[in-house]
Structures are given as structure tokens and as C-alpha cells.
Amino acid sequence: MEMLFEILNIKTKVERDLGKEDLKKLTKTFSQDEEFMDASMSVFVLMAHGNDNSVIFTADGDSINIEEDIIDLFDIRESPLLKDKPKWFIFQVIHLQNVDK
Question: Which of 36, 91, 96, 99 sits 20 to 30 Å CA-CA off 63?
Fold first, then answer.
């Protein structure tokens, strides 16, 4: 993914193996980044393990909800710099069966 975005001249930042609080903090920081004043769009990619219920498992064994903990941070109240700009979300979630979180 990183190489693809670089070819498309999309600025990228890669983070790996984040725990719940670090992922939530990073997502909030990303959604409010002042660089978006001049950007034409944002792309948020998350690759992780998860389940059927829009839940992502974090590196510390905890979990987050895709809608509440990620997507909601990009609405107009939380991310005014992205007003009227496309927001792309790509979630590659490997489903773990028989796991309740």
C-alpha cells in the first residue's frame, strides 16, 4: 500500500503494531492534521485482525470499534479541515473466528 500511494504522489505515514490508546491517539491526530487545509482528500488505511462486528483487535490485545473509534473522528465537528473533502477508508481485516472481544 505504501508504495502504491507514493507512486500516486499521496503523502504516507506508516505505523505498526499499535495498542488501543496509541491507535486512537494517532487516528485523532491524523483526522485533525493541519496539512489537510491544502489537501484534496484523505486516505486512512488500517490492516488488522478483527471480527464480524466492526471490531479491530489492537497489538496490546484490546479492541476498538471501527465506526466509533475511527470513522466518527472524521466528521465535520471532529475534523473541520476535511469539510467537503473526500475521505477514503480502507480496512483490511483478517477475520478471527470464535473470538469474543
Answer: 36
